Amino acid sequence: MDFETYQQTLKEESVFHTRRAMERLREGLFDPIAVRLLTAHEKALNAVLTEGFRALEVGASPHLCVVGAYGQGKSHSLTYIQDQALAGGYAVSMINLDPREIPFYQTAQVYRALMAHLQFPGTKASLATQWRSW
Q: What is the rounded distance in angstroms from the CA atom of residue 62 to the CA atom of residue 56?
């Protein structure tokens, strides 16, 4: 394969991935490729995250509130934030506080869900598996 053909193939793959991401988002499906390709205002978001991570390291407890109507990209943004935190060496846990699945007012159930979804940098192992290896 010559260089020109290779470049065209890369361009077609990029177009395909972008189109796939857009179609999945239209259907209401989450697509990890969309997180990488379609993150808006990435520089501003990274600045906020860097400031928040620094505050964590000095013992201040910052918070970030992501608010929006259905379909406005909250899950997309939170997945991006989760990926950045894992890349920065932080342990993370992300859950959906849906009153039908994990009601926010049932503290014990929320805690169990948070522990079950806890992820550590560089591994996909559960807390129990990671604990055993430590």
A: 7
